Amino acid sequence: MPKIRVRQKNQITIPLRIAEEADIKPDDVLEISYVNGVVTLVPAGRKGKKRSVMEYAGIAKGTWGKTTGDIEEELKKDRDSWER
Q1: Are 73 and 63 in a shared domain?
Q2: Total count of domains within the chain
Q3: 41 and 58: one domain?
Q4: 17 and 33 belong to one structural domain
Q5: How many alpha carbons lie under 13 Å from residue 18 in its C-beta half-sphere?
């Protein structure tokens, strides 16, 4: 786990690798909280962002097959494996 030093005026520097992974850029605003001994930084505007259910449409495409026949065959296998 990377370590950082708190400077004279309570300033910190976010390590480059972490800033890149979190998509934090110069002049971004971060919200900070302290709960149960844990300090958390969250880029402002990302916290609580509402997502449309339509963003998830198609995420399982191809999971059970590519054609209707493939999908029906997989469903039949699954249903046959159920204890009745």
Answers
A1: yes
A2: 2
A3: no
A4: yes
A5: 10
User: Is it the case that residue 45 has pLDDT exceeding 90?
Assistant: no
Q: Give the structural domain span for 69.
A: 51-84
Beta carbons of 75 and 64 less than 8 angstroms apart: yes
34 and 6, same domain (yes or no)? yes
In 10 A of CB 43, how many CB atoms?
14
Backbone angles phi, psi at 62, to 5 degrees: 85, -5
**Model pTM?**
0.48
Q: What are phi and psi of 69, to 5 degrees?
A: -60, -45
pLDDT, tens only, 11-44: 999 999 999 998 899 989 999 999 999 999 988 8
Residue whose pair of structure tokens reads 């004279």 in the numeric block: 8
- Phi, psi (degrees; rounded to nearest 5) at 56: -95, -5
